[in-house]
Amino acid sequence: MTWEAFVERLGEWFERRGLLVPAARWVVGVSGGPDSTLLLHAMRALSQARELGWELHVAHLHHGLRGTAADEDAEFVRHLAQQLAVPVHMERIDVGSAVAGGGSTEEIARQERYRFLERVALQVGSEHVAVAHHADDDAETILHRICRGTGIRGLGGMRELRPIVPGSRVQLVRPLLQQRRATIESLCAVQGIAFRTDRSNQTTEFTRGRIRNVVLPLLREQLNPNVTEALLRLGEQARWLETYLRDAAARTFESLVISDQPDCVVLNTRALLSKQRVIQAEVIRRAVALLPGGEQDLSFTNVDDVLRLAADPGSGKEVYLPGAIVVRKVYDRLEFRPPASMETPVELLPVFVNCPGVTPLPQLGATLAIEMCDVDAAKIDELRRAPNPYEQWVDCDRVQPPLLVRGRRVGDRFHPLGAPGSKSLSDFFIDEKIDPGVRLRTGVLCDQTGIVWVMPLRIDERVKLRSNSRRALRLLLRPGAPGPGVQL
After folding, report:
1. Is 13's pLDDT higher than 90?
2. For position 390, what pLDDT does the model report?
């Protein structure tokens, strides 16, 4: 391939992805190796050939590894940027010290590199960082993930575009992902592009080096001379399948979602469990991705834990996921929330109630209005069937003032209207499938005898209107000043 043909093909790649934008500002990650050095030259040539006026910024991170060789790499990149008259941004970190705290050198170096590249992009006002991963890197990544036990998403290998770190508005762009290493090195030779050779790439010290220098050569010799091409084809087909599953899950998601808020996604558990397992998994991923911090990739174990939770017959159990997401099973619902949005227990302080009169209940975000009325015996059945749960009628002569509203207490019992007998308030909440968080914020209206009304769920049997009732109290719970209590 000629240099001109390569630059033209690169331009087509950017154009198909909507990235061939004039006067764009780009950060280019340059290590000094052949691939990143070629990418910088090629993007500069493309900008000139298409008269794009791109502003390129070179970014190089010194990891504090490889001693003098790494210092020479940094100096090479600095000199290259000067030659091409582009700004250069450089930092040095000590990956070795970070590894001492736990984790692999490769993984920590990768994380620090992406954080650095994001910082540079934000500093210069760019939304795109170009890096030079190529097809051979992609094949090595796929093989590595297979050995670690990946799923369909992992088989898809590297993505051409993705957020550089979860939740970032800066996009990581890989323009060379379809190019082979041999092509890149050949173009460098043809163009006379100087580059640095990282000797650590030829060793087996790190996992990537063992895959590149031991495992793949052995597979080529013993199993398939074209193993790299086979891995790349597998990755492409996995991406096709992932796209199909993602679209199918999006359609299914709409039929399962009960609530879709910025800080809480709620799914119908029964409906979820009726779907094929692979669709269940994609729906879980979609629910997590909708939340702040939910861009993290979920492992098979993460998804399996959530599906086990969904199938658990109990209620109130939780699973914690990467990205600080909590999944809670609440009866027939599966709630996905960041921990900060989980309900905080609120102690409802006792409030004495005006009877008759209006009493603010700020902790419930409501007011309680009580009227004393004479009742017509002919209308008692109609009043008992009042459809509004926030309006209740009770027999005035069976209520023993003073009245107060308080929170639930250990040992609370009452006789729910229509029930065969008394039960604990805890059992009542369970039978009615009341969320644990709502239970903590439910007001209980009491008189001197006991519970009158668990608001707004049920009155006590002893205070109901009877055929001989002549005086009634009309209880009306209505929205008032905003507060942390139940939503009316």
Report:
1. yes
2. 87
